[in-house]
Design a protein that fits this description.
Number of strands of chain B: 2
Radius of gyration of chain A: 44 Å
Distance between the termini of chain B: 51 Å
Shape of chain A: rod-shaped
Order of helices and strands of chain A: HHHHHHHEHEEHEHHEH
Helix content of chain A: 55-70%
Low-confidence stretches of chain A: 74-81, 112-161, 332-341
Low-confidence stretches of chain B: 1-6, 12-17, 95-99
Oligomer: heterodimer
Strand content of chain B: under 5%
Number of strands of chain A: 5
Strand content of chain A: 5-15%
Largest sheet of chain B: 2 strands, antiparallel
Largest interface: A-B, 48 and 62 residues
Helix content of chain B: 55-70%
Strand order of the largest sheet of chain A: 2-3-5-1-4
Mean pLDDT of chain B: 79
Shape of chain B: globular
Structural class of chain B: mainly alpha
Number of helices of chain A: 12
Chain lengths: 398, 179
C-alpha cells in the first residue's frame, strides 16, 4: 500500500473499518459517505434461498455423488469428462515427440550414411570386378588356372554379361564391401580374425594391407575371395568383428558372356575336328602345311576360350569382398572390446559401458528435442491461459 | 458426513490444522453466493453457478496448494471464473439476457431512510462498468481483503486499492446525482 496516495489509503482503511465494525465510524464527511456506501453494498448482499442452501449442503455432504450418478445414468454414452490437465498433456506430448525424434534422427543419419557409402562402394565393386579379370596375373593362384590365354581378348564383365534368355543356370558375379571399425588397440587382432573367417569359409585373401603402430594412420584394406554360396555367412561373421560402418552388396549377371564363350569354344573344337579330318586326307604337302598352321591358330583360340571360361567360373564361384578396416579413435578406453569378439568379464563390462554410452547418447538427443519442445509447449500453454483469461475478463466489459 | 468431505485437505492460511471441505463450504458459501449473485444479477443463474463452483472445487480440492493463496481466495477464484463463463454464455445468447432483479427482499427491519439509501446505491452499482462492479462485489459482498481481491483477479494489491477507491468515488458521485 506504500504506492497509494495517503488520502486514498485513509479512505480505504475507513471503509474497511466500517465493514469490520458494522457501522459508520469516521467523523470526516467524505469518509463517512464512503463508509455508508460500503455498508449499504455489504448489507445488500444477496442471500441464498434456504431450499437451495439445504440442497447444496446435502450435495456437498454426499461428495456430489448423486449428481455424478445421475449424469452417468442420463448420459451413458457421454460420460462426464474432466478437463484434462494441459500441462501434463503437453509434457507427455513433448516426451513422445522427443523420443520419436531421438529414435528417428540416428536412423535417418545411418540411412543417409549408408546411402553415401553404397554409391561409393558400388564404384569400388565395379573396379574390383575389373581387377578380378586381371587378378590372376597378380594373385598366388596356380598359373594354369589364372593365366589368360593369348589371342583371346579380355572382356569386361560389364560388356559381356547381361541378358541371356533361355538360360536357367544364371552366372552371377557377386561382390560386397564392408567397412569395419576396430576398437582402439585391436586393429591387428581384427585383421587376423578377418583372415581366420576367410579361411573358415574356404576363401582366400587376394590382397591385404594393414597399417598399425604409431606411424601413419592405422587401418587396413583387404580384398577377399569367398565361395559365392557362402558369402552371406562369411559377411555375417565378418560383421561381428567390429562396428559396421557400412555394408554394400552387388551382383552382376555375366551369364551372357559365359554362354557366348561356351558357344565359341564348341565352335572352335568342331573346327579343330574338321581340320584334323582334312589333315588326314591332305594329298599335298602345301595343303597339309596350311592345315597345320590353321590348327595352331585354332589351338590357341581354344586355349584362350578355355581360359576365359575358367576366369568367368572363378569370378562367379567366388565372390569379391572388399573389407576396409578403420581404427575407432573415439573409444580410447575400450580395451578388450566385446565388439571385437572379446568375452568374459572384460567384454561384459565393455558391453555394459557401451550400452550406458548409447543410453546417454539417446538421452542427450531426447533432451535436445525435449527442452525446446517443452519450452514451446509452456509458452503455448501460458499464452493459451492468457487468452482464456482475457476472454473471461472480456465478459465483464460489456 | 462422508469420508470424502470429512477428509482434511484444506489448510487455512496461518493455521497448522486443516479443515474439511464441508467446513470450508459452510464458511464460504453465503459470501460466494452473494458475490456471484451480485455479478450475475440473476438468482437462478447464481444458484447454478455457485453449485457448479463448489462442485469444481470439490473435484479439485485434493490438488489445492496453500502457496496459491488461502482457501477463500481459491474458492472465489473458481466461482469468479464460473461466473465469467456464465456472462460469456449470456453474451453469446444476448436475446435471452435477463434483466437485473432485486436479489434481496426488504425485511421488516429496514428503515425507510436506509431502504432509500440502499435503492440508490443498488441503482448506482448497476450502472457501473463490469470490472468495477466485480471489484466492489469481491470486496464488500464477498468480504475479501484487498490482498485477496488482488490474488483472485490477478491484479496488484496497490492497483486493486486504487481502482477500488476510484470506483467507490464514482459510486458516491452517482448516488449524489440520483439523490
Amino acid at each position: 500500500m506504500t504506492e497509494l496516495d495517503e488520502t486514498i489509503e485513509r479512505e480505504l482503511e475507513a471503509m474497511d473499518e466500517a465493514i469490520e465494525r458494522g457501522g459508520v465510524t469516521s467523523n470526516v464527511a467524505l469518509e463517512r459517505e464512503l463508509q455508508e456506501i460500503a455498508l449499504a453494498v455489504a448489507w445488500d448482499a444477496p442471500e441464498p434461498d434456504p431450499a437451495f442452501s439445504a440442497e447444496l449442503r446435502e450435495r456437498v455432504r454426499g461428495g456430489f455423488e448423486r449428481q455424478d450418478r445421475a449424469s452417468r445414468f442420463s448420459l451413458p454414452a457421454l460420460p462426464k469428462l474432466r478437463r484434462p490437465p494441459m500441462v501434463a498433456l503437453a509434457g507427455v506430448a513433448s516426451v513422445l515427440a522427443a523420443l520419436a525424434v531421438a529414435v528417428a534422427v540416428p536412423l535417418l543419419t545411418q540411412e543417409k550414411k549408408e546411402e553415401t557409402s553404397s554409391s561409393s562402394a558400388s564404384l569400388g565393386a565395379g573396379t574390383a570386378a575389373q581387377e578380378l579379370s586381371q587378378a590372376p596375373r597378380n594373385s598366388t593362384l596356380p598359373s594354369d588356372e589364372i593365366e589368360p590365354s593369348p589371342g583371346v581378348p579380355q572382356r569386361d564383365s560389364g560388356s559381356t554379361g547381361g541378358f541371356a534368355p533361355g538360360e536357367d543356370a544364371r552366372r552371377i558375379e557377386r561382390s560386397a564391401a564392408l567397412t569395419l571399425e576396430a576398437p582402439e588397440g585391436k586393429l591387428d587382432r581384427v585383421a587376423e580374425q578377418i583372415v581366420t573367417v576367410t579361411d573358415r569359409y574356404e576363401g582366400f585373401v587376394l590382397r591385404s594391407n594393414v597399417t598399425s603402430g604409431d606411424d601413419g594412420i592405422p587401418g587396413g584394406e583387404f580384398e577377399l575371395r569367398v565361395p559365392a554360396d557362402r558369402l552371406q555367412a562369411a559377411l555375417r561373421d565378418l560383421s561381428k568383428l567390429g562396428d559396421v560402418r557400412s555394408r554394400t552388396q552387388s551382383g552382376d549377371d555375366v551369364t551372357r558372356a559365359f554362354v557366348s564363350a561356351e558357344d565359341r569354344l564348341e565352335g572352335a573344337r568342331a573346327e579343330r575336328r574338321s581340320l584334323l579330318r582334312r589333315l588326314e586326307n591332305a594329298e599335298t604337302d602345301t595343303e597339309a602345311e596350311s592345315l597345320r598352321s590353321r590348327l595352331d591358330f585354332n589351338a590357341s583360340e581354344v586355349r584362350g576360350l578355355n581360359g576365359q571360361l575358367r576366369d568367368l567360373r572363378l569370378r562367379t564361384n567366388y565372390a569379391t569382398v572388399n573389407v576396409t578396416l578403420d581404427q575407432n579413435t573415439e573409444a580410447a578406453d575400450d580395451e578388450d572390446s566385446g565388439a571385437a569378439g572379446g568375452d568374459g568379464l572384460g567384454g561384459a563390462l565393455d558391453d555394459a559401458l557401451g550400452s550406458l554410452s548409447a543410453s546417454v547418447e539417446m538421452l542427450v538427443r531426447a533432451l535436445g528435442v525435449l527442452i525446446p519442445v517443452t519450452i514451446l509447449a509452456c509458452l503455448l500453454w501460458l499464452s493459451g491461459r492468457s487468452v482464456r483469461r482475457r476472454r473471461r475478463e472480456g465478459a465483464l466489459t460489456t | 458426513m462422508t469420508q470424502a468431505t470429512a477428509e482434511r485437505v484444506m489448510p487455512r492460511a496461518g493455521e497448522t490444522e486443516s479443515e474439511t471441505f464441508e467446513a470450508l463450504y459452510e464458511r464460504t458459501f453465503p459470501k460466494v453466493y452473494a458475490y456471484v449473485a451480485s455479478l450475475l444479477r440473476d438468482r437462478s443463474a447464481a444458484e447454478d453457478v455457485t453449485a457448479q463452483a463448489f462442485e469444481r472445487a470439490y473435484l479439485k480440492h485434493r490438488s489445492y496448494k496453500p502457496s496459491r493463496g488461502t482457501p477463500e481466495q481459491w474458492i472465489f477464484g473458481i466461482a469468479r471464473n464460473a461466473a465469467l463463463d456464465e456472462l460469456r454464455k449470456r453474451k453469446r445468447r444476448a436475446g435471452l439476457e435477463v434483466d437485473p432483479e432485486d436479489l434481496r427482499a426488504p425485511t421488516l427491519d429496514d428503515h425507510a431512510e436506509l431502504s432509500v439509501r440502499r435503492e440508490v446505491v443498488r441503482a448506482a452499482l448497476a450502472d457501473l462498468e463490469g470490472p468495477d462492479r466485480d471489484l466492489v462485489a469481491l470486496k464488500f459482498t464477498g468480504g475479501l481483503s484487498n490482498a485477496e481481491v488482488a490474488r483472485v483477479t490477478g491484479l496488484s494489491e496497490s492497483n486493486v486499492g486504487t481502482r477500488l477507491h476510484r470506483t467507490m468515488t464514482k459510486l458516491r458521485e452517482a448516488c449524489h446525482d440520483r439523490a
